[in-house]
Amino acid sequence: MLGCSKLDELKQPPELTPLEDGFKTSAAIGYSISIATRANRADTPFKCNLHKA
């Protein structure tokens, strides 16, 4: 048998904000890594020649 406080606890909606924030953070990190990887590849227009004068 469940007590009233346990039943009220089960009726509460889940907190999705931390999960949503985690997804947004993961997407931002993945996007950043994707851009950094592409910038470091030699066959892309993002190639940066810092040693040229």
Q: Can you tell me about this structure?
A:
The chain is an all-alpha fold and 53 residues long. It is 60% helix and 0% strand. The chain has two helices and no strands. It has helices spanning 4-11, 17-40. It is rod-shaped. It starts with a helix and ends in a 13-residue tail after the last helix. 0% of the residues are buried. The mean pLDDT is 79.
Proportion of helical residues: 55-70%
**Rg:** 24 Å
Order of helices and strands: HH
In total, the number of strands is 0
Rounded mean pLDDT is 79
Strand content: under 5%
* N- and C-termini, Cα separation: 79 Å
Uncertain parts: none
Q: Total number of helical segments?
A: 2
Map the helices and strands.
Blueprint: H1 4-11, H2 17-40
Name its key features.
2 helices, 53 residues, mainly alpha
What does this entry show, briefly?
The chain has 53 residues and is mainly α. Helices cover 60% and strands 0% of the residues. It has two helices and no strands.
